[in-house]
Amino acid sequence: MELNAVTIGFFIFTILTLGGAIGVVTTRNLFQGTIWLMVSLFGVAGYFVLLSAPFLAAVQVLVYIGAIAILITFAVMLTRSVTRIKERYIRTIPSLVVSLALFLALLFGVTVPIFGDYSSELAPTVVMTTRDLGLALVEGNGYVVPFLLASVLLTAAMIGAIFIARDEES
Amino acid sequence: MDLLNDANLLPWLIPAGPLLAFLIITLLTNRSKLVAASDQREYGGHHPDYDGMMVPVVNRYSRVISVGVGLTGVICALLISWTVLADASQLHHIGQEVLASSVAWMDTGETSFFMGVLVDPATVIMLIMVPIAVLMIFIYSIGYMAQDPRQARFFALISLFAGAMLTLVVADNVLLLFVGWEIMGVCSYLLIGFWFEKESAYKAAIKAFTTTRIADVVMLLGIAYLYSVTGTLNYRDIMYSPETLDLLATTTPIIFGGWTVSAASIIGIFLIIGTVGKSAQFPLHVWLPDAMEGPTPVSAMIHAAAMVSAGIFSLIRLYPLFAAGGDPHHGILTEPLAFMAVVGAFTALLAATMAVAQNDVKAVLAYSTISQLGFMMAALGIGAYVAAAFHLITHAFFKALLFMAAGSVIHGMEHGEHHVHEHDEHNHGHDHHFDAQDMFNMGGLRKTMPVTFWTFLIGGLSLSGLPIITAGFWSKDEILADAWLGIERYGSGAHALVFVLLAIAAFMTAFYTMRQIALTFGGEARSEAAKHANLGQGLVSFTMTLPLLILAVFAILAGFVGVPTDFPVLGPIFSPDYNAFHHLIIEALPLSEATAAYASLPDYHPHAPPFNIVPVATSFLVALLGLWFGWMMYWRKPLKAGDKDPLESALGAMHPILKNRYYLDDLYEKAFVKPSQWLGIQVIAFLDKGLIDTFLHLIGRIFTWLGDLVKVLNMWLIDGVGDGIPIAIFNFGGWLRRMQSGRVQQYMLLALVAAVLIGIVLVLTSGAVIAAQ
Amino acid sequence: MVPLWMYLAVAAALFCIGVFGVLSRRNAVAILMGVELMLNAVNINLVAFWRYSETGTPLLLNGYAFTAFVLIIAAAEAAVGLAIIITVYRNRRSVIPEEADTLKG
What we know:
The complex is a heterotrimer of chains A (170), B (773) and C (105). Chain A is an all-alpha fold. Helix content of chain A is 70%, strand content 0%. Chain A is built from six helices and no strands. Chain C is built from three helices and no strands. Chain C has helices spanning 4-24, 28-52, 62-92. At the A-C interface, helix 1, helix 2, helix 3, helix 4 and helix 5 of A face helix 1, helix 2 and helix 3 of C.
């Protein structure tokens, strides 16, 4: 594996992603946790760039870091008791065991069969532009039905969120 | 099956008409309406239990239809009978050739039991007599039953009666004969008890039924034994087959030293006992006089056309069996023949003596029937086969005539009584015990009911055996001639007994007949009712008169078919070549050529008894003497109202005995009925209280115990299991509910564990798949 | 060039860290953050497979489009989830799912 910009970028993003993730699950302070989450999601956005999906990377940054992380921050701040929670974890050991088992299962079940397969080179580069995605989402033989369903889902989620979070008294 | 064109099949249809009529009337045309039991005009049944109740009465429409249907059935039977007779006359030699057909009715092991019809000479004579007599009775019934509330029922039953009789007549085996026999038993029960509101009627019905039943059981035993010995019940196979008769005569199941009884004798006696019941011979005669409780057409049916004739007819049918092993024409009687001779002759005399002292117009006729049936039975007993058959036919005609004429008299008397009541309501309002059947209330009816008088006279004279001109003379004379032949040639004691007893009985017959005629029709009216007695006008009168006239012709002319060939003057006129009746009926018996080879069998074809002055003179003498005595005693000096019967003083102490029928009914009442009832009560008490109750209690206890057992089982088995399962489920659920902790993360943990395990399995198996590739 | 398995390995690691967070954290918001991590791991996989799969097939944009949809789902999930958390907190003064066990059998 030659050392080039891509591989260096990959390692940097790996460190960001996994480090951020570990920060998310280990920090006592949830406010800090959201910061770690942003770091991790940013790393994922970097992967998207490496994988020739710049649009997704942009959306990742916009939606996750810009919207969801902020939303979580708000939630944290709205529920003030968060910092008063003494113990961070419950069922630490079983969770750890299950997580590791899952990881190993994924590692040996999915990754190992293609481990060291350097021949699996990138497919011939296709530059997918945002225009292509947009066309695919509204084309009859593309993803118009999932697109519509997603629209409905978003609307429903929005209404549901408003309804659920609405103050009863008001 | 082409029933109408095949002469062998046509006899099947003879009983069909009346039987169909029975079904049609029973099922379709018995529509009734309800009237109050107090309605004398519509109902008139007089039963205290029915007071204030509604009773069903056949409505007018159904009456007309049922009468029409019944009459049509009988006319069909008559026409088909004539067709069959015409077919039979085409046979070259009836007897050797017969019209017969049968169907396999029941498989009995390796062989089949066949039911079928047979027209042989014995059937022929019955087919001449029965349909005509029955038709006359039907026509007469139209008038006689015109006002009855249960007319449809009457015609249905009497149709069934006629159908059963015709079935019996055309049957080709003993079992089918027995079927017809038993159906007639039921019909007689239902018809004798037709006016069941009267206690005497239903008691008479029960008496008739139980008495004949006793005999029928014995007869059935005889039939069963016959079947077990021969393997068949067909007449032709038994009665016309010398081999079978020889087998029966030589099989001797009972041997006491030198006294052997053959199977033929045992079977014969059993079958004769059946007839003793059916034809009302001593000692089972008691039911027949009571049978007059039924409507008069029923009496005529029972006494003439059907019931009692069936008994004698069966004896005629089975005669070869009785005679097998003996030779009556040579003075050798078998046990059944001797039994018949003794019982018949004794009954003939006994019943005649009882008839002498009766005051009821129908009772006299009833006893005369018993007496005349005794004549026939005695005749058969001495081997006078032809004479018995002859007397059966002539008797049926004149006895039907007499009964219907007597019925007319009663009807006329009731009519007169009704008339008197209407005009003299105040004086006779209390007089409800008027007996329209008591001859001492009659008298002088010859003026008001002339047709009835003349026909009754003809019938009565025929019964008395008035020489030469009446049918009864020829048949009785022939019996006496046969008896005399036995005495003269072989000095047979049985023949002598029969001759003497029958001669005395014939004398008494003439006497009581004259007494009856004189008391009924002679002199002056002894009651208001008798003074006004008549049959009225219109259809009732017509239908009750016409049969009398027709039967009167037969009562005279039927005798001339059997005039002996060597009878002076008349023989050459009526029987120039041969005695027609003798010639016909004797062919029902096995041929002489066939029986000659068997030592045990007699010659069934004896010559007719030659003309002898002794029996003929006896016949003349007893008939005329009896009539003269009767004339002297009753007609010449007519009784006035309230006069005593001159016979009372003449007979002295004997009169009450005779009048009370030798107290036989009382004896039976005390000896059989009362003990039977007592026994019945005891048996019921024992069965009911002792046996059934014990049994029931035992069952009750067993079930209580079982219940307890089940209860215990229930408690620990059913409840244990039944409750245990829910409890186990409940506990299991309680254990399981701990899984539902409500903790989302816990759920997720478990889900992931499952996912990991599933994933591992998939990975391992897919690895195997990859390795395989 | 970075081989596919590396991406897969990183995604698996990220996923498992998310799982651990979801299973073990007491705070509902933290659990939600774990879920977000899991979703992102899936996204990495989808895009990586898309990138490394044979192109020129009708499945040309599958991975790409699916990632977009997952983002949408994630946004919706976050909105609704946080709304629920806030409601629960408002009612129970707690954001600990362990204490919200009204459904306990």
